[in-house]
Amino acid sequence: MAFTNSRETPGAAPVEPPYPPEALDDLGPGESTLAQAVAVSLERACVKLYLMNPANAPDRGAALRQARRVIERLVRDGSAVARSDGTLHSIFPVAASAAEGVALRGWVTRERATNTIEIGLGYGVSALFVCEGLLANGRAGTSHVVLDPYQATRFADCGLQFLEEAGLGQLVEYHADESQIALPRFLSEGRSFDLAFVDGNHRFDGVFLDLIYLGRLVRAGGIVFVDDYQLAAVAHAVSFCLTNLGWRIEEVSAADDFHQWAVLRTSDAPDTRPFDCYVEF
Questions:
Q1: Based on the number of CB atoms within 10 Å of its own CB, is 104 exposed (0-12), middle (13-18) or buried (19 or more)?
Q2: What confidence tens digit (pLDDT) does each residue in 170-208 have?
């Protein structure tokens, strides 16, 4: 049974109740009254938590404008002060460029993504563009998972700071784990994503592991957007997925010394390779 709190949230999308309706069937009058009071309280709490996610807010336009203001400020200024320790950080060229961010946002909206994942939060510019796309999609249950074991050290929590300033804190699920630890855990939990952005460890073994696990975490025929495709290790890891796993390239940006990207689509066919299959790449 779906419900909305029409008095507090007109037009809000329905969410599932936090209890089964039949739970009240076998209770006596007094117990039923107490149980119903608790259920109403839980319903209201769930609606409030649901609306704290900016993708579910009645006024998504305001949330989009707030995110856009932070993106434009970072791109314009090119630097920012970390609230955690007062250090000044030059954002570019470490962060993805505005052009790459626009391309990334475009794929989020084109795929009508709901759940996305990012390897390497850094200064959060790419995450801001992903979240902007998720907000534009306006789909229920939206979330963006980010992994970055160096967020507190190398980046002084700037990425999380900018996401908070953009009002996106409730949309983002942050993990300080390395991807080779977190991704297998997500797989064991049965999690699934529509789109992944890869900008973590740039050594071959690191990128290779990220792509292999994301190939199982991203839905069949989903998108894996890879940054730093100009690096040989990254391109070589991508080549394995193309030649051995049946992935295909949807887009490659113009050559760039700092941030070339490639957009990959995972295979939507069952994996029927023999146990000893291997194709040179």
A1: buried
A2: 999 999 999 999 999 999 999 999 999 999 999 999 999
- Helices (H) and strands (E) counted in the chain, each on its own, are 8, 9
Cα atoms in the Cβ-side hemisphere of radius 13 Å centred on 68: 10
Beta bridge partners of 116: 144, 195
Tens digit of each residue's pLDDT (9 = 90 or more) over 62-111: 999 999 999 999 999 999 999 999 999 999 999 999 999 999 999 999 99
| Residues in CB range of 158: below 8 A, 6 or more apart | 80, 82, 89, 91, 123, 124
Using the Cα atoms of residue 234, residue 236, residue 241 and residue 242 in order, give the sign of their dihedral. Answer: positive
Q: Label residue 187 exposed, middle or buried (CB < 10 Å: 0-12, 13-18, 19+).
A: middle
Structure-block tokens of residue 110: 């084109």
Whether 104 contacts 130, CB under 8 Å: yes
Reported residue count of the chain is 281
- Looking from the CA of 8 toward its CB, the CA atoms found within 13 Å total 13
Name the 3-class secondary structure at 223: strand
DSSP 265: E
| Confidence (pTM) | 0.80
- Report the relative pairing of strands 143-147 and 172-175 from DSSP bridges: parallel
Can you tell me whether residue 214 is helix, strand or coil? Answer: helix
Q: Hey, what are 148's tokens?
A: 């970055």
Q: Are 39 and 7 in contact (CB under 8 A)?
A: no
3-class DSSP state of 75: helix
What DSSP letter does each residue of 20-71 carry, written as one string? -GGGGTT--HHHHHHHHHHHHHHHHHHHHHHHHSGGGSS-HHHHHHHHHHHH
CA dist 206 and 214 (Å) reads 12
